[in-house]
Amino acid sequence: MAKQPEFFDFDFTKYLHDMKIPGVDLDAIVESQKKNVEALTNANKLAFEGMQAVMQRQAELLRQSIEEYAKTAQSMGDMKDPQEAMARQTDLAKHAFERMISNMREMSELMAKSNNEVFELLNKRFSETLEEMKGMMEKAEAAPKTGAAKKPAGSAS
Fold it and tell me: Which Pfam family, any one, appears in the UniProt record (predicted)?
């Protein structure tokens, strides 16, 4: 079994905590990033499920089309009158075209629904991230004010 590179053993959160940057809540940043990764994971899952639904529906429509084509071909073979056959073919072509337009509309609606769900999820998380950042900035701005009142021992006034 191959050994993982040392990079994978590196704990970024511990490294960031050891840096001790004043006014920066590293726990909040790490938690926010975890939520971002979780939102992206959920968005990918939604996108995959949406694509799966579209592909399943396309397969179902293809199966229906093949069945209809087989029935049509069988019924066309029984026709003796060329004018009746021509009228029937024209009617079938019109019906097939209308069905194709309807199917395309259905597919685009399915894809749009899936895309909207993914967009709404990511948009919600983006808004939450902005609010989290705003809160962190407000905390960081408030921290120096409380710390400025206290002067270190031994400092000149």
Answer: Phasin_2
Do residues 59 and 51 lie in contact, with contact meaning Cβ atoms separated by under 8 Å? no
CA distances from 155 to 67, 79, 149, 151 (A): 90, 108, 13, 7
Encoded tokens for 12: 């970024």
DSSP-derived 3-state class of residue 71: helix
Taking the C-alpha atoms of residue 78 and residue 136, their distance in angstroms, rounded to an integer, is: 78
What one-letter code names the amino acid at 77?
Answer: G
Phi, psi (degrees; rounded to nearest 5) at 24: -115, 120
How many residues belong to the chain? 157
Rounded to an integer, what distance in angstroms lies between the CA atom of residue 54 and that of residue 49? 9
Taking 50 as the pLDDT cut, the residues of the chain under it are 147-150, 157
